[in-house]
Specification:
By secondary structure, this protein is α/β, with parallel strands linked by helices. The chain contains nine helices and nine strands. The structure holds pyridoxal-5'-phosphate.
Length: 227
């Protein structure tokens, strides 16, 4: 585990340096969906500071066993509004907000517990109809509406493009997400600034970093193939 994390961190640093970015500007989200708590514990002891989970119920179980570690928990899966209540209690950052309905529910639940919930908006940058995420051309309107919700703090954009393990095919989508972010930041929408770009996985994280990722979500390279 230590060696794997060392190699990934080194590759992240090299990708950042190769395009003149500070290595500190990219953080690793260790994607632990379906991974047993024992393996997650090893990763936390080897220095992982952010865990990414896809399923609320699974994360709730794991959280109980791993609560003593000072890790941040990020939600990266598809979130149903009826799970918003639990998501707000568990997660420091929710990467996958893609509708006003979900944003409103998260805002309501955050208000109940006196929290400002940090979120990212997930964009379907490739426009495939099977992918979750808001369409690129609807993102600005969604952000304007989210900016008015008092208990949400929007921090950036997330995407999950098609094609696995083909970084050069995915790269244009990463560049497009960054372009969209720059465009929206330029509008200076009240309460909306987008410093974070969550993009890049095991098969393409270096390309994502070169295109501006600040959060890379890596599972397989850390924990091995999921069963
Ligand atoms: C599973 C998953 C990842 C990690 O994928 P790997 O290829 O195992 O690194 C990243 N992001 C999301 C949204 C995922 O569901």
């Amino acid at each position: 585990m230590k060696e794997r994390l060392y190699q990934i961190t080194k590759r992240m640093q090299q990708a950042a340096q190769a395009c003149g970015r500070n290595a500190d500007s990219v953080r690793l989200v260790a994607v632990s969906k379906t991974v047993a708590p024992e393996a997650i514990r090893k990763a936390l002891e080897a220095g992982v500071t952010i865990l990414g989970e896809n399923y609320v119920q699974e994360a709730r179980e794991k959280f109980k066993t791993l609560v003593q570690y000072p890790a941040a928990w990020h939600f990266i899966g598809h979130l149903q509004s009826n799970k918003a209540k639990y998501a707000v209690r568990l997660f420091d950052l929710i990467h996958s907000v893609d509708s006003l309905k979900l944003a409103r529910e998260l805002d309501k639940q955050a208000a109940k517990v006196g929290k400002i919930q940090q979120i990212l908006v997930q964009v379907n940058i490739s426009g495939e109809d099977t992918k979750s995420g808001i369409a690129a051309d609807e993102t600005t309107a969604l952000l304007r509406a989210i900016g008015q919700l008092k208990n949400l703090s929007v921090r950036g954009l997330m995407t999950m493009p098609p094609y696995f393990y083909q970084p050069e095919k995915v790269r244009p989508f990463f560049a497009a997400l960054r372009g969209l972010r720059d465009e929206i930041d330029g509008l200076h929408i009240p309460n909306v600034s987008l410093p974070e770009l969550s993009m890049g996985m095991t098969g393409d994280f270096e390309a994502a970093i070169q295109e501006g990722a600040t959060l890379v979500r890596i599972g397989t390279a850390i924990f091995g193939e999921r069963t």
